[in-house]
Amino acid sequence: MRQLLTTALDAATDAGATYVDVRVLEAVSESLSTRGAIVEGLDRSESLGYGVRVLRNGAWGYAASPRLDLGEVSRIARMAVEVAEASSTSQTRPVELVDEPVHVATWVTPVERDPFAVSLEEKLGPLLEASEAMERVKGIRVGRGTMDLHRQRSWFLTSEGTDLDQTIVNVGAGIEATAVNDGDVQQRSYPGSFRGHFEAGGYDIVERMDLAGNAEQTAEETLALIRAPECPAGTTTLVLDGHQVMLQVHESVGHPTELDRVLGMEAAFAGTSFVGIPELGSLRYGSEHVTIQSDATSPGGLGTYGYDDEGVEAQRVDLVREGILVGFQSSRETAAAMGADRSNGTMRAEGWENFPLIRMPNINLLPGSGSLEDLISEVEEGVYMSTNKSWSIDDKRKNFQFGCEIGWEIKRGKLTRIVKNPRYTGITPVFWGSCDAVAGEDEWRMHGTPNCGKGQPGQTMRVGHGTAPARFRGVSVGVSQ
Fold first, then answer.
1. Across-strand partners of 39?
2. Is-cis flag, bond preceding 191, omega within 30?
């Protein structure tokens, strides 16, 4: 790897590049799924390749290949320079990079038990036990279990002298029960929807979930949803569990504070942002209870790393402080464009073939005080919603509608009947402005989103969110369509 990196670096420099970085990425993933007593899917994929990113005449060039012979490496490096030269002919503003200290380091996700060293039989065991247990409950049509494992090792070298070796390990697992009655389909998930709960770390994370031990309750809640009335429509007090707050943070804070969106550099796939650089330090994004950070150092986060994919050290920065917009997620290029002194290290690429983009690491809502029960106890009338089911938000990340798997009506500070198909709508700064409480540290959890899409061609990235249950006043709620 050392010879490959230096060969690419030398070839690009000799061809006239003024800046070069070379990234080799080796990745392995496993995906398992069960349905009842059946193993429904087993997949293992491996990938190894490299990408060369260069600056020439103030423009970017990028080329990549899975072929590791040195002749091909030199050719790819020269091709990246040629791409940059061609791009410079239509460049309206030369690329400038803010400074970053030189880093020479090795960084590894802390892992108690290597998930790739666990036998296939052991990994399938809790999935089959849980999915069979759910299907044994009368009325459950389908019980499923899933597990996803991912490890990537990257080697990174720049013409400035940065030299990095990183290994990142992510795991996820979950169960889901489905019931059908007279055309009504209801699902309930544990510990979270969309293939479960995800963290950075080892197989011990899966063991702590106790999937089989939570199978019966998951099934019973699914059946309760089939019998439940629809969520009543109106304007009321809304309490969200941490899993749904995760999605709310992701879509309405994480994406609109990505600086490439703010600058209009990213628009084709998922839109721009409703905020602008002149509003930094003045825009009222939420209430005084809302402080949200970009933190690539959070233990257990899917967006946790030592250095991003342009060699910038992981950092913790405020995006919203006590309700005021105070920061963006940046790269070395976008930081220079807005006049900042340093990137906050949020550039990442899905694979070796991908050009890095600004990707949220862990976007965390800081905890307040008290418990979920405390939040509910102060509600005369409202709805408590749990576990994300659906999302829709406009291309500026301002107007949204989100649906949850399950809801409970709140009457005089107590949870009462279950309601199905709950949804709520809002406008981002108005909604966050209605937040009057966030639960405390004991309720705060790190959640993971393994399927965040961005870019064109599209890239899928794993990101994290630390959240606790939160309460919002005067929210429009109703039934998901």
1. 34
2. yes
pLDDT at 481: 55
Query: Which segments of 61-150 does DSSP mark as H helices, in order?
Result: 70-88, 120-136
Q: How far is CA 32 from CA 55, 194, 241, 336, 466, in A?
A: 42, 14, 27, 44, 26
* Nearest Cα residue to 471 out of 241, 239, 247: 239
Verdict on whether the full-model pTM lies above 0.85: yes
Can you read off the two tokens belonging to residue 210?
């106790």
Q: Are 145 and 163 in contact (CB under 8 A)?
A: no
Question: Which segments in the chain show pLDDT lower than 70?
Answer: 268-270, 480-481
Residues near 70 by Cβ (< 8 Å), separated by ≥ 6? Answer: 3, 4, 7
Q: How far is CA 95 from the centre of its chain?
A: 28
DSSP string, 244-267: HHHHHHIIIIITTTBHHHHTTS--
What is the C-alpha separation between 318 and 366, in angstroms, rounded? Answer: 10
Map residue 204 onto helix, strand or coil.
helix
Q: Is 418 exposed, middle or buried (0-12, 13-18, 19+ CB in 10 A)?
A: middle
Q: Which two tokens stand for residue 335?
A: 């930081």
Q: Is 440 helix (H, G, I), strand (E, B) or coil?
A: coil
- Distance from C-alpha of 81 to C-alpha of 59, rounded to nearest angstrom: 9
pLDDT of residue 375: 98
Long-range CB pairs of 267-270 (<8 Å, 24+ gap) are: 267/395, 268/456, 269/453, 269/454, 269/455, 269/456, 269/458, 270/395, 270/453, 270/454
Contacts of 382 (CB under 8 A, 6+ apart): 236, 237, 238, 239, 409, 410
In 278-293, which positions are buried (b, 16+ CB within 10 angstroms) versus exposed (e)? eeeeebbbbbebbbbb
* 304, 166 Cβ separation under 8 angstroms: no
The pLDDT assigned to 269 comes to 65
Q: Which residues pair with 427 in a beta bridge?
A: 399
Instruction: Please give the structure tokens belonging to residue 189.
Output: 């998930």
The β-bridge partners of 313 are: 307
Q: What is the pLDDT of residue 480?
A: 63
First to last CA, the chain: 52
Domains assigned to the chain: 2-227 (3.30.2290.10), 234-479 (no CATH)
The span from the CA of 305 to the CA of 433, in Å, is 32
d(CA 352, CA 196): 27
